[in-house]
Amino acid sequence: MLVIYNSISKQKEIFKPIYDNEVRMYVCGMTVYDYCHMGHARTVVAFDVINRYLRYAGYQVTYVRNITDIDDKIIHRAVENKESIQSLTTRFIQAMDEDLQALGTLKPDFEPKATDYVAEMIAIIEKLIAEGLAYVGRTGDVYFDVMQFEHYGKLAHKDLEALQAGARVAVEEAKKSPLDFVLWKLSKPNEPYWASPWGNGRPGWHTECVVMSKLQLGQPFDIHGGGHDLKFPHHENELAQAEGAYHQDFVHYWMHVGFIEINKEKMSKSLNNFFTIRDVLCEWRPEVLRYFLLASHYRSPVDYSLEALEGAHQALDRLYLALRGVDLNVEVVEDVVAEQYEERFKEAMDDDFNTPIALSVLFDLVRELNRAKVEGKDNVVALAQKLKHLAGVLCILTEPTEQYFQHSAANKMGIEAIENLVAQRRLARSEKNWVKADEIRQQLAEKGVIIEDSGEATTWRYE
RNA sequence: GGCUGGGUGGCAGAGUGGUCAUGCUGCGGCCUGCAAAGCCGUUUACGUCGGUUCGAUUCCGGCCCUAGCCUCCA
Description:
Number of domains: 3
Number of strands: 15
Radius of gyration: 27 Å
CATH class of the largest domain: Alpha Beta
């Protein structure tokens, strides 16, 4: 029984899809004017695991993640770069695809772009005006009239009074209330525009998600997610539009992912304390990054640090080491003990996708496996297969074992040279020339190569 | 100011009304030519002050500290 923490009720709730075993999930994606950073990675990986687990659990998932390819930041950046908007967004969409693929995330089933749905956005704005929920302001822009939607604030748990008291924005004369948000923004000279009943302009940000989710998933749909910073105002504003326009629930389960922090401070573009995914992938292999992200629960804040990455690396090594020397390319073997670990794994993931616990189950399985290896039990293969299989749901332990340890990289000693030294050392050892054997081991260690003897065999790996 | 979250052992990070999280690290042992890996054992916890309880890190209340949102942000 799957339980999900729902932001709107602030409680864990039993998950019941709208249609039997189908899950319809929409996640707010990127605004493509720059490279993706670790914060994006976290949200994307979190929902990737959710997507994978739901499928593993037998649900038929439709996963939609939008691309925002028109907004003020994009326009500004294009001007800054003396580049067309089209070229800017195309470039960063491609970069995003590369980065997310490197992280091993599955592509969403649909990745709608805002600019492909402008006509539909205009239609919903017209409907909102007809419903009395939107108005044309004094400057000609169209605004959502927050006061007219009685449930405004129900997601973020804010009441209008408090919001107004805290409003830091200078009241724009064009709006009735400072909380009203723009649905259609008239274009200035040299800005891109679409024709509309209110003049040439472009849609406000929040509307695209309402339109694209409804088109591809219907309304209501099951899960809507995104980073924690989207809860308010973005998701609140989506909800107001969707429920205001169609008079029915918008979303059943709202999920929000916690922030990546640096020195306990939110990583964000405005604070300029962010690391891009590609920066990090220059130093660390993608799987380490994934492990790091999965080692804490998706709702908690995570502090990004070298120590944490190193910890992830070591933990991952332990998982892979357990698989070493086991031939997995055989028919899947059933084993009662192995099944117990799968049950525990499911239990962990069923509890609001608790990946830290799921990982701890994997480590318990590793101990079981190592023990079985030492004792020469006959369930070694079954345990190893189970480990690989369950880890695969989290999309870790995906590489062939030896490839993981002997992964070539430009700055490392070549495999041939290593094998050569290992052979020399084997000879020295057979002659009980311990001095020479230790010398070679030391030589390799200085190059970051770890030697492991077990009986006659010697294996090596990069540290 | 309002609204959300947090404060756990050397670090990271879960969780629970009364036996173990887990990973890294420390210590002891086994194994090993010595190591590494592995196995076994083991030390150091639950911000603070009260309350409920036979018993609270876990429930309730006050306080302190801290992050986030209230403006674009995953």
